[in-house]
What we know:
The chain is an all-alpha fold. It has helices spanning 2-6, 25-60, 64-83.
Amino acid sequence: MFYALLGLPSFASLIPCPPIQELNIGYALYAIIFGLIGALLAIFSGLSMQVFGKFIKKTFKNRIITRALVAGAIIAVVSLLLQS
Length: 84
């Protein structure tokens, strides 16, 4: 909507969907709702990483290699679960 209001070309032509002929309030509401959901997910991710970082630091203290291996293993397991 920002690009459309400025009269600039947008990246919409790169998406293989039919073009939007007109903007209406429904599209604006969807954009606001999905923006809020995305912001909440970003805040949750940031807080989760901070909590996880403190937990790992307290658990493994100065054993840096062990901390890195455990963090890598957890990331691998989460990635595998999200993939399937």
